[in-house]
Design brief:
Layout lengths: L16 H15 L4 E4 L20 H27 L7 E4 L11
Parallel strand pairs: 1-2
Helix pairs in contact: 1-2
């Protein structure tokens, strides 16, 4: 669908700064500008360990994976999108950061 409207889609590990750089640079090389980035990756961690992600029973490695994906991934997406969008003439674009209902679920 992206190709039909002249857009690009690229999968990447949002936790990987070099992957963001590679994808954004590829978009700039192909299209000459970056207009929109949608940060929509997110995980709960439930698939990485059994439920029980409260502070008493959480697995620290799973917690770190969730934070790296849900927080650092957004920060990296913004970092590289802003870098690319500043190069555009006129300067501008849209960064859309999405969240899910998992951010407001009562675990107690």
């Amino acid at each position: 669908a992206a190709v039909e409207v002249g857009a690009s889609f690229a999968g990447l590990d949002v936790r990987d700064d070099s992957a963001w750089r590679r994808v954004v640079d590829a978009v700039l090389a192909e299209h000459g500008r970056l207009d929109v980035v949608v940060n929509n990756a997110g995980i709960t961690g439930f698939d990485l360990s059994p439920p029980g992600h409260d502070p008493e029973s959480l697995d620290l490695d799973v917690w770190r994976a969730v934070m790296a994906t849900n927080l650092e991934g957004v920060a990296l997406g913004c970092r590289h999108a802003i870098r690319a969008m500043r190069k555009s003439d006129p300067v501008g674009g849209s960064i859309i950061n999405m969240g899910s209902r998992s951010g407001v679920v009562d675990i107690w």
